Amino acid sequence: MTTTTFPANFEYLDEIRDFVGDIARRSGFSEKDIYSLQLAADEAATNIIEHAYEGIKNGFIELACDMQGDLLIIIMRDEGRTFDPSKVKPPNLKADLSERQIGGLGMYLMRKLMDEVRYESTRNGNILTMIKQKG
Amino acid sequence: MEITSQEFKHCDLVKIKGRVDSSTAQEFTKALEKVTNNGRYKIAIDMSELEYMSSAGFRALLNTQRNCKRYNRGEVVLVKLPDRIREALELAGFTELFKTFTDPLEAVGNF
User: Which of A69, B3, B78, B94 stands the most exposed, by the fewest C-beta atoms within 10 Å?
Assistant: First the structure.
């Protein structure tokens, strides 16, 4: 797996998207799928920065990305607060403008854009695995 | 990200270039607030040179649409949506909250 570590800071989202995008492009994904993978990685990293590391300085995100057969695997590890995905309510996409909530939209998009999204919380933090099949 | 804005008689045309994510969304929000703080609530956003937008940008669009539609004083419309961004907005159920146009002049003329 190609692994790299980024500071948990919004300024690094560009680099996180480029890192995933380069691997996806080299692996022959379509431009549409590359965009989806980059958006999913961005939303995942944004959630880690905003929630897992809320009020915590010097956090980091360890990002691993590679092909396994025809699957692209993205793994993000953080040492922030324990995350329980079941506590995130799905957004109501049919709600009127006044009642539309933006919370939970990032995770909703991740699940829609990827074939599989899996969270695991350990004593040392959270591990997020996202998988997308090529083609 | 780069934002320019142009004032027409009946609306403002805001052009956004580059990428909007959690790092740049605040700047995008501020540019839109600058328009609404001037008492201008009819806004067309030209996205033809927008390369990327995450849900942080969607949030800015949603908040601005809410502000503009209050008291029926205006609305935000989207112009020349690139395919990838349209697909992401559709996935988020946002396309029904915004009128879309393929031509900036048509969007300006809508107001």
Answer: A69
Mutate to test the interface with B, among A15, A105, A110, A112 (most CBs of B within 10 A): A105
Measured distance CA(B18)–CA(B24) in Å, rounded: 10
Residue A34 CB neighbours (<10 A): 20
Domains in chain A: how many in total? 1
pLDDT tens digit string along B54-75? Answer: 999 999 999 999 999 999 999 9
User: Is the pTM higher than 0.90?
Assistant: yes
Q: What is the CATH number of the domain that holds A69?
A: 3.30.565.10
Contact call for residues A106 and A88 (beta carbons, < 8 A): no
Q: Note the ipTM here.
A: 0.95
Ordered by where they begin, the domains of chain B are: 2-104 (3.30.750.24)
Structural domain of residue A79, as residue ranges? 2-133
